[in-house]
Amino acid sequence: MTIKVLLADDQTLLRSAFRVLVDSEPDMEVVGEASDGAEAVEIVRAKGADVVLMDIRMPGTDGLAATRMITEDPRLADVRVVMLTTFEVDEYVVDSLRAGASGFLGKGAEPGELLSAIRIAAAGEALLSPVATKGLIARFLAQGVPGSGDAAYDASRLDALTGREREVLVQVGGGHSNDEIAGRLEVSPLTVKTHVNRAMAKLGARDRAQLVVIAYETGLVRPGV
């Protein structure tokens, strides 16, 4: 299967570099380029895409707003968004994950990292670097992220989870992979995957990235603990 990729960035030179890299892969193709968020959403709706590489900061409609427009559209439920950041730590990353992005990637990442991120997102997984993302989320939640007390993320939402699902969510919030969680809880990776999928369904999370955010916002996992 060929992975259809949309490039959304206001820097023409950067888009060109990404296009050359993506199109050089036999299992990928660039289906469009956008210089702002609104244009990105239009292209996704018109041509479709499996993965959108979305710059957070663009003139006009920025990447954060565009991500919300994509993830809130039922017709685009299968589209995955990977946010591109200039710096490893960006104050908008948590908001991006809350908006439905599958993860983030620094613009200075190695070519192999970029291609791996696209494949991971296309496969329905989340987070290029779980540990790095978990650390970033912890840092911003510790500082008090606007909206972190929203009713949508009230701790009572966790009441829908079984005890084992809570245990798995704690491990997900810690940035651990399914194999690592399986070893820690002494169960099979398939069992862990089942618990993760059930937790996502019960909590209304699009993917693993949002589970990490929910784990912190509900207080199930605390920054620095």
UniProtKB/TrEMBL annotation:
InterPro entries: CheY-like_superfamily, NreC/VraR/RcsB-like_REC, Sig_transdc_resp-reg_C-effctor, Sig_transdc_resp-reg_receiver, Tscrpt_reg_LuxR_C, WalR-like. PROSITE patterns: HTH_LUXR_1 (PS00622), HTH_LUXR_2 (PS50043), RESPONSE_REGULATORY (PS50110). GO terms for molecular function: DNA binding. Keywords: DNA-binding, Phosphoprotein, Transcription, Transcription regulation. Residues 154-219 form the HTH luxR-type domain. Pfam families: GerE, Response_reg. The modification 4-aspartylphosphate is found at residue 55. Residues 4-122 form the Response regulatory domain. One of its GO terms (biological process) is regulation of DNA-templated transcription. Gene3D superfamilies: 3.40.50.2300. This is DNA-binding response regulator.
